[in-house]
Amino acid sequence: MQFDDPDGLSRVCTERLGEKAGRQFAAMARRGFRLVRSTGGVQATGQCRLGGPALLEPGTLWPEHSGIPLSLHAVLDTDALAAWLGSELPVRPGLLNFFHLDPDLPYEEYRTLDMFGSEACRVIPADPARAVGTTPPEPARSYPATPVHAAEVTMLPDCWDVEDEDVEFARDQHWGAASRILGEMGDLDGNTAGSHCAFGWPDTSYTLKVSSRDADGPAVHLLQLAEDAELGWGWGDAGTLYFTIPVGALATGDFRKAVAQVLCC
């Protein structure tokens, strides 16, 4: 659920769920962005873009999986995003380059690779003052460079990312907190799986819990990339690619711990 107005988010939560549960659910809100193409006078946000060359510091090796180069899918300019994210971005990594194994590469070896393993993705930070445009090694794919505007939104989690201890619910009426959220807020839970988003909460499903939890709480959502015919990428039937990172790893700027997951029909 995405809201342009944080006050409206809190109001809707208390109106639908009551004072206590509404405050509990509203407290789970996170700040994020809708990533939209910067066309028709819409200005790009810093160096945020989809596709194009990677922006890497000199000497940075292009990431590979078992000798197969990964594809650069997006670059986020966190300096341009930091003012809105505030404490939700505890480090200033500069530029973040997002790589993933391309399922359409014509490699025979690809059939034996784990598309969902930790080696199938990489998030590489770079200092904007030192970063240079870096083209992928042959025969990796390169997608069209598409500058994007990061529209500020406040997001609530998908009901399936709410645990029973997060939000109060009547046990004689609901089988869990997710059931209550779905029943009271379901008509507002717009499907964002067809869009590109950064930070906040991902659009998820009970078939794949993207925002998995550890001792520090839910993982932090970094990037959601939808199937995109213009750019020429996709992950299965109406697939969506999600990048997340453990809370502790983000706090220390250890983007080696970032992982990617795919959800498709």
Automatic annotation (TrEMBL):
It comes from the Bacteria. SUPFAM superfamilies: Hypothetical protein YwqG (SSF103032). This is DUF1963 domain-containing protein.
